[in-house]
Every structure is written in structure tokens, then in C-alpha cells.
Amino acid sequence: MPLKIGATPADVGDMPSQARWIGVGRSDARDARAAADEAVGAAMAGREAALLVLFASEDLDLPVLVRTAYAAGGGARLIGCTTAGEIAASGPGDGGAVVLALGGDGFAVAVEHATGIGAHPREAGAYAATALAAVVESEHRVLMLLSDGLRGDQQEIVRGAHSVAGAGVPLVGGCAGDDLRMAATHQFVDDQVLDDAVVSAAIGSDAPIGIGVRHGWDAVGEPMLVTAGGANRVRELDSQPALDVYLDRLGAPDDARTDPEAFTRFALSHPLGMARREGEEQVRWIPSADFADRSLVTVAEVPQGALVRLMEGGIDSVLAATDAACEDAIGALGGAAPRGLLVFDCVARRAVLGDEGIRDEVGRVAAHAAGAPVAGFYTYGEIARTRGVTGFHNKTLVVLAVA
Questions:
Q1: How far apart, in whole angstroms, are the C-alpha atoms of residue 81 and residue 377?
Q2: CA angle, 344 as apex, 343 and 350 as ends, to 5°?
Q3: How far is it, in rounded angstroms, from Cα 29 to Cα 38?
Q4: Alpha helices of 154-195 — where are they, by DSSP H?
Q5: Residue 167, phi-psi category: left (phi > 0), alpha (psi -120 to 50), beta (remainder)
């Protein structure tokens, strides 16, 4: 599909005089119109918003949901996507909708989108970042990206966005989900429902913005060299078929060796880690395998020549990473209290934590927020670039704090 850029130009939402605010609403209604009205109404609480961010289940009637939410916003711009679960301070959920709204003095907002990311990921990311031109005068800026994680090389989207944003503007966001069906995800902009797309919101603020990025996984075993790979495929590890090396080193169960669905479930808790020059290893999720050519399929490139290791994690290490990510994000606000937290949490971390663990995790995030609203979703990949050109992550928690 050719690259298609946004049909509407990025424009700034400048608010009439009122105190800056962030609100969150959620709905578990299965009727899309009712879900949108309830979630948007609770998030806006009678105030005039500049931006709505909508996270919703694929099980809802998406065109009705998005049109209703956009209309209820009363002129606010809207971006969003489908999920593998929704997050609010009240806890994690499935099958519903969560809306974050922001407005008031000191916020400026611009929105863009591009489709065709499977064929042109870097160009799409670059166009999405042009929204930043409308908020260039803001003291603090961030670009939020929500993309179709089942299409294209997500790291290329980040590289494209970085080529426009430059080193001074952080990137945050995540890849849409479809409740682990791994079939199709959707992205939202204003009253449109898209696929094969990236949607963006440039947010300018007169108060600080902080970002925390932690994963909680530990490398195990000896490093392996990617001797053949690229373009979302790891074909060989140490000159052997990558799938065979992966399964044998992990002692994978029999069904993961023959059944694609069983393999996906197994690989959720067994990612690859790529060595980095500094800091934590960069984690790569393996959502599927090619049993014919014995390769591993990844959601972003693991380049030939990379050193990788198998990763493992447990409830304690993953929850410790949750605390650290929140502390890093809030600590970057320079002592100011957060007005809201937006979280992008990998569905693979959810698989490790289990139902009780994700309730604990969201409770920890809410405790760090200290009464400020919290919104987010379970993703198929996370975006966080605060330095360098890399910025796509898997099995990671990304926290955006806004003062």
C-alpha cells in the first residue's frame, strides 16, 4: 500500500483561559455509543479539552465508538488505538474503553497521521512528526505515536519520527493490540478508524514532562551472534537455524515446536535481548515463528551481526521495573507533582504477572501518581526515545508524566 499522509493538517488546540488539567474516564459498557459517552464524559467532566486519547477493545463497534467520542469532545482533537487490555487508576480491564483528556492554559496540541506503514515505515514516522511544527514555541514538548504493531518495522517508524523531531524532543507511545488475536489492529484520528497507520499527537506544555523506561528482564546464558537476519526476521543464530537454537536452548515444550499458537504463548515470556553500548539490553518480542524456514519473526529488526541473549523475568523483577519507571518519570518533573500519568505496558509483561500481578502493578502506578489520573493500555511494543536514535522497545513499561 502506498504511503498516505493525513487528510487534515496539524492544527493547534489553544484553550480559553482556565487552569491546566488532565482527566481520565473509563467504561466497561459493551455498547460502543454508551462506552464513548461514559468515558469521554468522565474524562472531560464539563471542561473544554484540547486532546482526547482513546484506548479501546477491538470487541467494540469501533466506527460508532470513535465517531461518538469525537463528537462528545466538542472540538477536541482525538487520537487512539485498539488494545490488548486497558489501564486506569481503578485497575486493568478488558473489553472496554479508557479516555485521557487534557486542556487548560499551558497546553498546545497538534495531531497528524499517515497510513501505509507496512511499506513505508520511515516516511510515515517522519510525516507523523510534522505535527511538532505547530507546538514549536512551547517550552516543553513531546511527540506521542500510536502505530499498527503488526505492520512494518517499528524501529523505522521511530527513526523517521526522530529525523524530524531531532534530539531535543522525546518520543513516547505504543503499538496497538487486538487482544492477542494477532490478526489486525486499528488506530484512531478524530472520527476515523484506520489500520496500517501511525497516528501522532504533538503536545506542548509550559510545565515539565518526564519519561521512565524499564523492562525488568534479565539476560541468561551465553550470547549468540545473529549470522543471518534483518527485516523482522532472525534466520540464523551462531550459523544454525534460529528457531531450532531458540527452542533447544530454552527446552521448549513439544507443542511450542509444532503449534503456532502454542509457540506464541511460550515466546511471550522468552524474549531476545540485544546488547547495547550502555544501559539495559534492548528487548525484542518474538510473536511468531516460521516453521518452514526455521526463522524467528520479530516486530522490529534484529540486525545481522547483533549479539543477543535469551531473557527471563519474574513477578518481582517486573514489578521492580514498574516502580523504577514511575520514579524516573516523576523525578524528571523537577519536584513538581504530576497532573497525570500515561502508561504503555507490554502485553508480555501482563502474561508474566498474571491477573493478580497486573492489579498489583496498576495499583503501584496509581500510588506513584498520588491521586493524579492514570490512563494507558497493554501494547504490542513500546516507543520511548529520550536520547540516541533507537527508541522502540518490547516487554517494557513506558511512563509519561506531565506536570
A1: 9
A2: 105
A3: 8
A4: 154-165
A5: alpha
Does the pTM of the predicted model rise above 0.85? yes
Torsion of CA 183, 144, 191, 32, to 10 degrees: 60
Compute the distance between CA of residue 33 and CA of residue 76 in angstroms, rounded to an integer.
18
Question: Which cell numbers hold the place of 168?
Answer: 531535543
The set of cell numbers assigned to 240 is 544454525
**In angstroms, rounded to a whole number, what is the distance separating the alpha carbons of residues 280 and 216?**
9
- Of 382, 396, 386, 402, nearest to 157 by C-alpha is 382
Q: Are 98 and 40 in contact (CB under 8 A)?
A: no
What is the reported pLDDT for 280?
A: 62
- Rounded-to-integer distance, Cα 104 and Cα 122, Å: 33
**Residue 65: strand, helix, or coil:** helix
Whether residue 359 has pLDDT greater than 80: yes
Please report the pLDDT score of residue 300 as a whole number: 79
In this prediction, residue 388 carries a pLDDT of 67
| Helix, strand or coil, per DSSP, at residue 347 | helix
Q: Is the Cβ–Cβ distance between 218 and 118 less than 8 Å?
A: no
Copy the grid coordinates of residue 16: 480559553
315-331 and 347-369 helices, crossing angle to 10° = 50
SS3 50: coil
Which residues lie across from 103 on neighbouring strands? Answer: 21
366 touches 305 (CB < 8 A): no
Distances (CA, A) of 226 to 154, 273, 307: 19, 12, 6
Q: How far is CA 320 from the centre of its chain?
A: 20
